[in-house]
Amino acid sequence: MRIIAPPAHPYGSSTPQICMRFIELNHAKDLEANLASQPAGRCEIIDGRFEDNIISLLQEADKKYRNPNVFLYVDPYGVKVLNAALFDSLPISFSTAELLINLNSFGFIREACRVMKVGFREREDEIFSDIEEYDSSVMDSIDELTAIAGDDYWLSIVVDYSRGIIDCYQAEKEFAKQYKLHLRQKYNYVLDMPIRLKAGQHPKYRMVHATNHPDGCILMADNIAKRTDRLVIDIQSGGQLSLMTQTAENEIIDDSILKEKVRELLSTTTEFTRLNKFLADFYNEHGVLCDLSRLSSGRGGSILKTFEKNGEIIVSRDPAFTDKGKPTKFWQEGKGNTLMLRKK
User: What's the rounded Cα separation, in Å, for the pair 109 and 171?
Assistant: First the structure.
């Protein structure tokens, strides 16, 4: 399923409008039935291929709406339709652009090995057993793979794999890292969430999010952290609770590690910086190590609240006082509240 959801102003109207366009090749009829109760004109289902329809849909949105914002969710059952040039162009073409991509990174490594005539050493049935691939993503050339990756950085990864320097799991992780670095040339904030179906298992694929807005980054990071709890507890552990919180990488991060990494970022925060930008920069640099409340909330023990109490940071809030004249103590922005901070 692929979604374009541009909150935008139709010409002649001041009211933002959200329109959803679904391009679906294999389940269009089911999708139509599921969305039958939606208001007329809000949703449109296109029965066809993503690559055959996406450009015309984007062009239509650009003509129909004034300064449209685009949210593009791509779940391609493979990697062949992941057009890096298209993704790179969105922030230039639209008022804002946000991506959510289900990246079959192992599928890319498999095809890269085949095109480069490198034997795939690991058992494919173990790696791809739970991945739906309607499109087997068979590619014929280096150019096709580079168009997906956005550059030729993948070549050196396959060379290292062919020489036995790395295994396919390390190759996948390095490819995902480089893929995110490429996206960061056009998007300020890029996160990923490895999807594992069993504890200790290597990721089956990765969900990649890209945006230029710090609020979008921290909302997605918090969502990833909370969904990680479900993946780790409900799916990987068969419903058994864990005493320690785990990250999407199946790592256990205690508060001492979080404090160290927050202090690293604070060391360069010499000017007052919006809280949401600081948090987005943290997630962008270190990944989703925890949910938002562990970093910044009114609860006792949150990292930034503790640092303020200990005098490690200087905080400026607007409004500075409540209606009753007491100093405000909020640790989240929104609803008219803004917070600036810097190191002391």
Answer: 7
